[in-house]
Amino acid sequence: MLRRLILPAAVLLALSTACAATPDAATPAASGVPTVKLGFSAWPGWFPWQVADKKGLFAKNGVKVELKYFDSYTDSLNALATGNIDANSQTLNDTLASVAGGAKETVVLVNDNSTGNDQIIAKEGVKSLADLKGRTVAAEQGTVDHYLLLLALRKAGLSEADVEFQPLPTDAAAAAFVAGRVDAVGVFAPFTTTALKRAGSTTIASSKDFPGAIPDHLVVTADLLGRDPKAVQALVKTWFDTITWIGANRAEAVQIMAERAGVSVADYETYEKGTTIFTLEENRTAFAGELPARAKQISEFLVSSKLVDAAPSLEGLLEPKFVQAVQP
């Protein structure tokens, strides 16, 4: 369950093999209707797609969807960048990195903001970010948790040069921390649950400390946007229908999402405050001002931190018409 990778351009444009899971329920649709391949991976703000698939909500909106779950978030990003899927849930950071690498992608929906489910977790005795100086810190290189680490270090007057950075896949980073091989780790839910099993460990920084820094989105290829805007509209409408269904059927929905996440219902419930799902009105407000400003800010940070070589073009990055067209 690797998630939310800010990829270097060379990796992003490389071909990769998509790891698709078989959906829990087939999605019926009229014959002759093109299938939209929609990717997602491990993150609480994206598990509602599993509910949409299981409860037949895509079909109710007239769109035939092949829902593809990726164990590796990296694979989902590469699949979208190379056109092997039509749409994917991914962060704004990753989308900007993809565009910087030459991909043609557009944000059409805000799924959520991370408000605590991305965390820097440290061993006993490391009580603050300043205490990380000279310590070994693991995170997946280029992920938004690497990005969060850089933001947190900067806030503390430090840089990556002040720590011994260990680049590890997110699941391996959490395991290394629990085994005592590193002093701190940057991970996202559900891997936060794993990391916090280390006795005496504590969260010393999280996305809650950096409001709006890690927004998550539905992103589509320029090809899908050009050839089938009705399908894009149906995906966006299905998202809001799904959030409504979850609100009315919470127990069943949480069970579906926890099963997809591979955690207990009790553990899944702890993620609620750390991921803030955006309402339709919040989507419209974000597209009107917050998202363009955030895209520029993140782009500048990615360049200054040398996570990308050059700032991506923001032209065509954001398309608000689909959330604007949804009827409440």
Describe the protein's topology.
Blueprint: H1 9-12, E1 35-40, H2 48-54, H3 57-60, E2 64-69, H4 73-81, E3 87-91, H5 92-100, E4 105-114, E5 118-122, E6 136-139, H6 144-155, E7 164-167, H7 170-178, E8 184-188, H8 191-195, E9 202-206, E10 215-221, H9 222-227, H10 229-248, H11 250-261, H12 265-269, E11 275-277, H13 280-304, H14 321-325
Parallel strand pairs: 1-2, 1-3, 6-7, 6-8
Antiparallel strand pairs: 3-10, 4-10, 4-11, 5-8, 5-9
Helix pairs in contact: 2-10, 2-11, 5-13, 10-11
Main location: periplasm
Subcellular location: Periplasm
InterPro entries: ABC_SsuA_sub-bd
**How large is the count of helical segments?**
14
CATH fold type of the largest domain? D-Maltodextrin-Binding Protein, domain 2
Q: In what order do the strands lie side by side in the largest sheet? A: 2-1-3-10-4-11
Unreliable residue stretches: 1-30
Taking the sheet with the most strands, its summary is: 6 strands, mixed
What value does the Rg take, in angstroms? 19 Å
Cα shape: globular
Task: Indicate the CATH class of the largest domain.
Answer: Alpha Beta
Helix content: 40-55%
The number of strands is 11
Average pLDDT level? 89
Intertermini distance: 33 Å
How many discrete domains?
2
Structural class: alpha/beta
Instruction: Please name the CATH architecture of the largest domain.
Output: 3-Layer(aba) Sandwich
Order of helices and strands: HEHHEHEHEEEHEHEHEEHHHHEHH
CATH superfamily grouping of the largest domain: Periplasmic binding protein-like II
Hey, roughly how much beta strand do the residues contain?
15-25%
